[in-house]
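Demo today. Your pick:
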Amino acid sequence: MPTIAYLSNLFPSPVEPYVIDEIRELRRRGVNVVPCSARTVKPRLDRHLHALAAETLYLQPLRITVLLHAVWVSAAKLAILSDFLRHALFQRREAPARRLRALLHTFLGVYYAALLHSRHVDHIHVHHGYFGSWIAMVAARLLGIGFSMTLHGSDLLLDPAFLDLKLKQCSFCVTISEFNRRRILMDYPGAVPEKILVRRLGVDDPESKRPSHQRHSTFSILGVGRLHPVKNHSFLIQACWLLKRRGLRFVCRIAGDGPERQWLEGMIRDFDLQAEVRLLGQLSRHQLDEQYDRADLVVLTSRSEGIPLVLMDAMVRRKPVLAPAITGIPELVADGKTGFLYQPGSLDDFMARIAFVMNTQSALGPLLQAARGHVLKHFNREANLAAVCDLFHPYLKSQPTQVPDISSEIASATYENPLLQ
């Protein structure tokens, strides 16, 4: 049975359902998938994720004896890793601290290769282009197999790390929007265009599962996203303050949790918005479905995004959406046709669009139907999931690469270590 090691920064994660979907689809096709996580999962998980967590191979916390063996193998096979090390040391476009992390992650890549050795992995895939992709790249080199990666948004647009080398070394790179593909080819002219492949995310059609929405007298705004600076929820809270000053009746619910929660709670108190703005925390899928059903408008205020699932979820439910005209979002939201876009950073434009939706709710039927049709045609979860998984099959029984397979050396270096058996 062909085997893929699938590495994520944190797995399983309730905010990244597409990773779980891809693993399950590959398994349905007869592929043995080893789910791997660079970090240890937090104990708070939905019940259905516990089984996935129990079978996941975690790189952390590090086991000192395994790490020492990894250092030994790195020294013994320095020539094989030399281009990675040279790139980490002398890539001037990267900050010194990041170059140091790349050196450390090289050792983690050897560590990861040792953990995978007995599993006879044919290919490594890594989701996101953060430090996990460097670890996967190193491990694949040592095991003499290919690796691939998926790029979303921040890992390409805000925090790209050594992507020039990763794009050169990978078998293929999946990205979720045409905008991202154009950006990759523009910023990394050495990338092979045929290896940069667009495969969109998608959502299911909940039409037969949800009750009809009962409209309330108070206009309901919904924001969904991690409470993190990149999601820019403070922008939404400022807009709510202005709406209240103008005497408009509304309620704004924000679903999600994260490091900015305390600060956002302070903003809500300072603006006296306790009656209007509610932080709901992390919600289950069922709870989130209920929030979509109650919403009159779903908003996104992020500084950077791929193509967000939250917008797809809203549009397929015939909910109007308002989002910034950035990155790949216009591939999903055509302004005035399938939703509404605002000028990034402009509170005035954001407010004007909210007022327009408030005043024209009864006339938005054709737009909402067009939005639903657009999602079902181009962002269908089942079809897009199949298209992603199709990419892996040519690499599962590929010929050995020109890089020598040193898995036997890894095995001999770790044979006496029971932690690796």
